Amino acid sequence: MITSPMILSILLMSYIAFGCLALAMFSHYRDTFSTSPTTLQSRLFYWVGWLLLGSTLLLSINNIGVAYGSVVFVGAMAPAGLLIILTLSYKAKSLPVYMLLSFISMLAFLGISFF
Asked: Ramachandran region of residue 65, left (φ > 0), alpha (ψ -120 to 50) or beta?
């Protein structure tokens, strides 16, 4: 059964995943941290981002089913991507803080939805 905390945790996990994928790019990393990333950092952000997106898909499919889970997954990706675009456009230096707050909130919502 899907609950509102579950949808919020899927949205927040998508936000973190897109944030990692954005930080894997040279220009976004430089705008955020004012330094260029090493190859290891770039690859780490890239793979963590994709693993988080896959985990988000599995989480939504596991709780709802394949048909509705994939719809919820795609529906959560759209606002998460838009929020990353807006964050990088107006407050790029705040992206790591927002990602950390999203991670903490996601853990809280996952705890609420499973109990």
From this structure: left
Copy the structure tokens of residue 26. 């040279």
Alpha-carbon distances, residue 20 vs 73, 75, 98, 99 (angstroms): 17, 19, 12, 9
For residue range 76-86, list pLDDT tens digits in order: 999 999 999 99
Q: What digits encode the pLDDT tens for the residues 41-50?
A: 999 999 999 9
> Residue 36, SS3?
coil
Query: Does the pLDDT value for residue 73 go beyond 90?
Result: yes
Helical segments of 1-115, H only? 4-23, 26-33, 39-64, 66-90, 95-114
Dihedral angle of Cα 30, 33, 38, 41, to the nearest 10 degrees: -120
